[in-house]
Each structure stands twice: as structure tokens, then as C-alpha cells.
Amino acid sequence: MLAGEGHASEAIAHYRAALRLDAAYGEARNNLGFALAGRGEIDEAIAQYRTALESGFDAAGVHYNLAMALLGRGQSRAAAAHLQRTLELQPEHVQAHNNLGILLARSGRLEDAIAHFRRALEIDPASAEVRRNLDIALTGRRAGVTP
Questions:
Q1: Is the pTM above the cut of 0.85?
Q2: How far is Cα 18 from Cα 129, in angstroms, rounded to an integer?
Q3: How far apart are alpha carbons 109 and 60 in whole angstroms?
Q4: DSSP string for 45-114
Q5: From first to last of its 147 residues, what are the pLDDT tens digits of the chain?
Q6: 12-18 long-range contacts, Cβ below 8 Å, gap at least 24?
Q7: Whole-angstrom distance, CA of residue 24 vs CA of residue 9
């Protein structure tokens, strides 16, 4: 609640207190990582996400958050693996489909990218962002170029 109201420092203190009581509390680790990432502390956020996964908290949200943090560090291949895992755990995750589509398009795998964009639009037909990405990928496919 504190984090949602813009009180990240207080939220972080509470997440850390919860983790002192139970170091394997994966949801608190994920939330701590998300709050840290929001403050630009990406390396510590990545460490929190990884610790959550290592403790057995194999949740779509952790994989997605870790993927976004890894993208912020330019680690596209590792990010793609976590986006894939996100989709295994939560196949209807629109942003995971969209972001994986972007990574696939950038690596020249336009057909795979298009499939992810189309799946995202099936889930959320109103997403202008996904529609734009699909249009770019389709244009690239017709032109024979990689976006």
C-alpha cells in the first residue's frame, strides 16, 4: 500500500523487516525488488528477484520484473528467457508477449515476434502499443528487413 501511494522508502523498510523475519518470503523479495527498481537501484533489484527465485518463489511476476530489470542492463538474452518463463506461468500476460515480441524482432525472428504480438492483441485488442509493434514487424517482414 505504501509503495502504491508513492512512499517507496517506507515500503522498502517494511519489505526489509518482513525479510528479516522470513528470508524466503518470495513475495516480499519481489516487491522489494520492484520498489528498488523504481528508485533506479537496478542491480539490487536484480539480486532480490534472483533470490526470490532461488528460494522457490517461481512466480510470473518475479520473472517478468527480472526480465525488465535485465533489459535495463542490456541483457536481452537473459531477459528473453525470463519472459518465456513468465508466459509459461501466465500465458495471458500481454506485456510479456509484447516485450518478447520486441526482443525477437530485434534479433531478426520476425515470424516469432509477429506471433507474440498477435497473441497479445487477442488478449487485449485495445492495446495501441502492441498494435504499433505488430505493424512495425509486419512492415519489416514485407520489406525483408529487421526492425
A1: yes
A2: 37
A3: 24
A4: HHHHHHHHHHTT---HHHHHHHHHHHHHTT-HHHHHHHHHHHHHH-TT-HHHHHHHHHHHHHTT-HHHHH
A5: 766 667 678 889 999 999 999 999 999 999 999 999 999 999 999 999 999 999 999 999 999 999 999 999 999 999 999 999 999 999 999 999 999 999 999 999 999 999 999 999 999 999 999 999 999 999 987 766 544
A6: 12/36
A7: 21
